[in-house]
Structure formats: structure tokens, C-alpha cells
Amino acid sequence: MVVVLTNISYLLTSVLVTTSLTLTIIPVWVRIAFSRGFTGKDMNKLGDVRVAEGGGLWVVISCTFGIYLLATLHRYLSNEVVYNDEFFALTSLLLLTSLLGFMDDILGWKKGLPIWVRVLFIAPISIPLIVIKAGVSTVSIPLVGVVDFGILYPLVLVPVGVLGAANAFNMIAGYNGLEASMGLTLMLFTAIFSYVKGIDLVFECSLIMASALAAFLRFNWYPAKVFPGNTLTYAVGAYYASLVILGNMEKFGVLLYTLYFIEFILFIRGIKDGIYKENFGIPEDDGTLKQPYSKVYSLTHLAIVILGKLGIKPTEVRVTLTLTSLQVLVGMVVLAVTLLGLI
After folding, report:
1. Exposed, middle or buried, 45 (CB in 10 Å: 0-12/13-18/19+)?
2. Which one of 118, 153, 305, 322 counts the least CB within 10 Å of its CB?
């Protein structure tokens, strides 16, 4: 019991520090970004509304410090080394991925790194996981069963998983509070699942990232003072994939990512129609958003259409709440079917 309470106190301290760091740094960053002209146009609003860019960097840094603090408390106060390899592989991957995203952010929207460069760079970023041979090669695949991939798991599936998750998380974006809300939801459901399964590493690291995202939402919620940027989206997607791999919970992780698979299908639909879609709506004078295309090429477009058909004004906040609610629903269903062994 004493050990359990000690571990809980370490985790709560790390979560508190992570939250405090984010809440303290973001306002300072917003002022600096505006003073240096590092701002972007808020596309879902009329006029030239400017918002500070690159705020996701401080979510990543705060989360990293939170994980380091957790490891430090265990080592210095309890004289124990916990998850040593996993902690440093996870934080290394998180920082490397955010660095790539930040490079894209500072070069400018639509003027940043070419897509092929981003894809090429994200794949080897999974090297920290490869080095520690993260995960177990035996994977339970929904509707397929248990498959042993052997050496292909760390050398092929891990990089593909990190690459796919990082890019996919970047696809449902562009609305105040959307990326942070979706990331927070993913982390909380991952924390619940890992807690029930007794996967302490994933539980603790999910909560630390969740605390950073929750604090970030304080400034990213409508009307946003700061954008997360690709710095956050790539990092959170890669971080999520890493937690799934480290926890050997691929079935749960893939199912929880259902909305991102749907988003990818809608994206391909757009490519087939010759449209490289944008998620933004067209802002109207009354604060509502209009569907930007004749067809639906993103879940954000679908949310606008559904809200309109229900007679609800499709505002930016409502689109964010609709998609976050969908992710909560997916999370609840996935938790039920996986914990009950229904799939």
C-alpha cells in the first residue's frame, strides 16, 4: 500500500508540474510570437484575425519535463529505476517529431516542408523505439487474430505505425481547440484502458500528456490565442503510436483511431476528385461556417453538414464539440468491446 501511494504521489507531482509549466509558458510565448510576427490567420473567422503560431512546442516540452520528473522522483526518492529505456525512447521520439513539425511551422503554412520530406523524415524518427526493440512481435489484429511478425515488427511495423499515426493525427485539424481536444480524448481513453490492464508506463505517460493538452486548451479554445501547429499534431500522433507499441495494445490503439481512418478515406476521395482538401469552413457574417466543397472530404465538412441538417448553426465551436463527442463515443465503444473481449 505504501508503494502504491508513493507511486501515485510521484505521478500527481509530475502531472501538476506539467500542467503548471504549460500554463506558465504559453502566455509568455503568445506575447513573444506576436512581437516577432510569428502569427497565422485564423481561417474560420471573417477578416484578418491573427493567432500566435507554434504553441504545441511547449506542450511537448512540458510533457517531456513531466516524464523526466517522474523518472527522477523514482530514482532519487525511492532509489529505483523505472522504465529507463522506455522513458528515454519515448521522450526522444516526442522531441524529434516536434522538431520536424516546428520546422514546418516556422517555414510557414503551405510554404513549409514538402509532403515527401515530412514523410521521409518521420519514418526514421521511430529509431528510438527500434533501438530498444519496443513492443512484442505477436500482435492481435481485429477481425484477423494473433499474428507473429518476428523481426519485421520492430524494423518495419513500428516505423510504419509511428509514421501513419503522426500524419493521420495531423489530418483532423484547423479549428480552435480541435487538435488538443481530440488528443486529450485519445490520451484519457488510453489511460483508462492501460489502468484497467495494469500497464503502468502507458497509464502514467498518457496522463502526463493529457495534463499538458488540457492546460494548452486554456489558450487554444475558441477564440484561440495560440495555434498548436504541426509541432503538436505530429508529436501527439507519434506519441500515441509509441504508447500503443510500448503497451502491446495494438488492437485497442487501432480501433480507437477509427475516426482517423475515416478521415484518410475522405482525403483519398478528394484526391480522386482532383481536390487536395482543406478542413476549414467558409465563415459567414452570422458566425456560422459553410461547407467549402460540393462533397464531403473531411470529418470537419461532415460535421458542418450534419449540424446544418439538424437545424443547428454550424459554428466553429460546435464543429469542434461534434468531432470530440464522436471521438468520445468511439472511445466508449472501443473500451467496451476490447475489455469485454468482444473483438
Report:
1. middle
2. 305
Gap between the Cα atoms of 55 and 69, Å rounded: 22
What does the alpha-carbon distance between residue 71 and residue 13 come to, in Å, rounded to a whole number?
A: 12
| Residue 52, H or E segment | strand 50-52
Within 10 A of 145 (CB to CB), how many other CB atoms are there? 8
Q: Is the peptide bond before 223 cis (omega within 30 degrees of 0)?
A: yes
In this predicted model, what pLDDT tens digit does every residue of 261-319 receive, in sequence order?
999 999 999 999 999 999 999 999 999 999 999 999 999 999 999 999 999 999 999 99
CB atoms within 10 A of CB 127: 16
Count CB neighbours of 272 within 10 A.
8
SS3 40: strand
Percentage of the chain with pLDDT > 70?
94
Give the residue among 19, 284, 320, 280 at the shortest CA–CA distance from 174.
Answer: 280
Cβ atoms within 10 Å, residue 264: 16
The answer to whether the beta carbons of residues 219 and 29 sit under 8 Å apart is no
Residues ≥6 apart with Cβ < 8 Å to 115 = none
Q: Residue 62 carries which side chain, given as an amino acid letter?
A: S
Asked if 207 and 11 count as a contact pair (C-beta separation under 8 A), the reply is: yes
Three state DSSP letters for 184-200: HHHHHHHHHHHHHHCCH
Residue with cell 507554434: 54
Residue 251 near residue 182, CB atoms below 8 Å: no
Q: Where are the domains of the chain?
A: 2-255
Q: Are the beta carbons of 200 and 128 closer than 8 angstroms?
A: no
Residue 292 has which C-alpha cell? 467549402
Cell numbers standing for residue 240? 500515441
Span 60-114, pLDDT tens digits: 999 999 999 999 999 999 888 888 889 999 999 999 999 988 888 887 655 556 6
DSSP β-bridge partners for residue 147: 139
Element containing residue 51 per DSSP (H, E): strand 50-52
